[in-house]
Amino acid sequence: MKALLPQRSTKRVQDMGRSSLTALLAFAFLQSGVSMPIHAQDKVSAEAERFKDTEIRVIRPRYFNKGKRFELGGALNVIMNESFIYTYMATGIVAFHLNEDWAIEGTASYGLNIDREDKRILFDEFEIKTQLFRTKYQAELAIQYTPIYGKWQLPSGRLIYFDTYLTAGVGQTGIEWEYSDFCEDPTGADPEALPANAVKGYPTFMVGAGQRYFVNRTTSYRFEIKGHRFLYNELDAECSPVKAQASGQQFASSAPHDVITILLGISRFF
Questions:
Q1: 152 versus 43: which is more confidently predicted?
Q2: Beta-carbon-side half-sphere exposure of residue 159 (alpha carbons within 13 Å)
Q3: CB of 236 within 8 A of CB of 176?
Q4: ∠205-228-214 over CA atoms, to 5°?
Q5: Each residue's pLDDT tens digit, 206-234
């Protein structure tokens, strides 16, 4: 009996230790199980409060869809590379987007030409007249390809969506010839009168690139840079076309002239 007492006491102590450890672990687990949801809920509430006024679209693959939609717009078009005149053109835009990448677009522009101060100085001080290509209108039909669609974020957290497109097409450019710009008044016994001022159209080829910035799901701003090459008849730029032809000199019927334009506009999708 005496030999069995220590063994029973030791076993009882071990059982009590295990029970105490189990109870302690269970209490700790219950405490952590209660406190974890509270901390997680506080964290979620703080994040929600932080972004409550911010519209988050970052994970969306595409915010603005153009496929199978018409685009109508208006713009101001400016010719940048004429040395002696300013040319501003009011431009109308009509496009149909076949899908998100490809579109067919037509544009029509009507121009206003204003002489620069340089032109006046050359004539008033040096009696030099300059040949001017006064663009009166442009009409073009183009294919448009959009390889890039993206977005960037303002410091306020707002997202700005945009696309970048390439365009190429053909059309017609109307040049207003004002012969008093570069022709002297006829003199002599049998002078040939200056040709009458006229607007003449020439075939045009165009390439360019631009970007749209989407304000919402129906409206966008656009920025474009385009190069236009039209082919004009050199006789149209002669002060005495009859004498020029009689001289036997060769005049190109399709002399190239290049124009660079920058466009700023707004368009709406339907």
A1: 152
A2: 15
A3: no
A4: 105
A5: 999 999 999 998 999 999 999 999 999 99
Distance CA 53, CA 20 (A): 52
CA–CA dist 34, 154 (Å, integer): 40
C-alpha distances in Å from residue 242, one per residue of 24, 63, 136, 175, 250: 114, 62, 25, 21, 13
pLDDT the model gives residue 17:
56
pLDDT band at 255 (very low <50, low <70, confident <90, very high): very high
pLDDT higher than threshold 80 for residue 143: yes
Q: Which amino acid does the sequence have at 119?
A: K
Class of domain 69-269: mainly beta
- pLDDT of residue 250 exceeding 90, the answer is no
Domain ranges of the chain: 69-269
- Residues 6 or more apart whose Cβ sits within 8 Å of residue 218: 268, 269, 270
Pairwise CA distance, residues 71 & 219, whole Å: 9
The 10s digit of each residue's pLDDT in 76-95 is: 999 999 989 999 999 999 99
**Which residues pair with residue 152 across a beta bridge?**
160
Cβ burial, residue 190 (10 Å; 0-12/13-18/19+): exposed
At 224, list the tokens: 């474009």
Distance CA 51, CA 247 (A): 79
Q: Please state, in angstroms and rounded to a whole number, the distance separating the CA atoms of residues 261 and 193.
A: 35
Burial degree of 232 (CB within 10 A; 0-12, 13-18, 19+): buried
More confident residue, 35 or 46: 46
What 8-state DSSP symbol labels residue 212?
E
Instruction: Give, in order, the Cα–Cα distances in Å from 243 to each of 138, 176, 249.
Output: 31, 22, 10
